[in-house]
## 1
Amino acid sequence: MTARVLIGESHVLKRFSSATAAQAALDRAEALLAAGIATPRPARQDADTLRFPRITGSSGGDLVATLPHLLSPLLALTRLKAPGLRLDGHDPLRRIRPRLALAPASVARLADRQAALLPPPGQTLCHGDFHPGQVIRTADGQSWLLDLDDLALGPAEADLGNLIAWLATRPIPSPDPLPLRLVRSRRDVGACWHLLGGRIDAASLSAYQTLALIRRALKRAEGGDRSLLDAVEALAGQGADLAKA
């Protein structure tokens, strides 16, 4: 589900591809709100456009230092059982397939191997594109979960793997090589998740994390920056486990 976004002073307008897609987004938000998940409540602007209240607070990189605030709404989401929603299974290859022509053969083979290791989607909710920009922490201490466009059925490891890849590859100066950043990000996310009471299947997390890393590398390569893809290719060519490198 894709949408065009217009941000105003007090609201956010999201225009969807169709009235059906807009209704699906409205239904998702209402279902999560009814289940106790803090997410902006939309109202219909017109047939294919929804109007959301603009939530202001800390988000993105500002939340990296306070992982419990970032992960708490995700944990609450994963403890719900698809509340009256018809959702597809999460497909981490959806954004990889269109860019596979950019992938070196070793990276394409790695994506295939990891995809074969993925568990069935099950009945747990996953955000589908979780990273620090999808949460806003307001001054009253509430963590709001944003952007439900990719909400799907899938294990928590799908979202945690995406977060780890985001943290390890965010564009900030670092003298550390990619393998060390991946290890550190996985350690920090895993420790916080366990502290909050969540559980992790290590093998599943490794597969999702590696696919999320490949997705980010291909997206950047599509924009002209191949540095991350080159780093992933080097590790894949060495037979390294990108989740434990």
## 2
Amino acid sequence: MQTGDVTTLYSDSALLKAKVQAKLEWRYENGNAQYPKGINVTMYDRNQQVSSTLRSNYAKYDKQRDSYFARGNVIVNNVAKGETMKTEELHWDRLKRQIHTDKFVSIQTKTDVVQGNGLISDDGFVHWKILNPTGSFIVEKPQ
């Protein structure tokens, strides 16, 4: 089934945890879905404030695993920490509340840029680890 302008809400104990929005969804009988025009995900903390966002050019959902796969210009922002990660592919495991990739990642923090291959993080992108770091450089503020 094809649907436009879709919003899916995920909650736990009556608290909103995540909102997934897509311009186009292809939903299959087995519950899986594809988002050929990409997704925008908003994650919320326990105070119902936006904690992080994720967007990509394409995504798919695996109902059996309760996980999303995002591909193409994947950008994750941690709102509170002001950190941004960019990669080409990312897996979001909703059951483990974890995101991960084995692809190249670049993370801009407030003070530096860290790059490497592979990443694992909580799904709020608060506690992250690059598995194979390849470089780091300091970002200088304009004077």
## 3
Amino acid sequence: MKVVKVGIIGLGRLGKEHAKNLAFHVPHCELYAACSVVEAELDFAR
């Protein structure tokens, strides 16, 4: 099965939860990109 690559815009409270769920709980899904204006939120995504 192909992997679906997903990007998230905004890593605030809900964005972080979505990122964790996509990265660790959704089969065949890869958290490929994330963007935020807050540097600490980007560190979280790395």
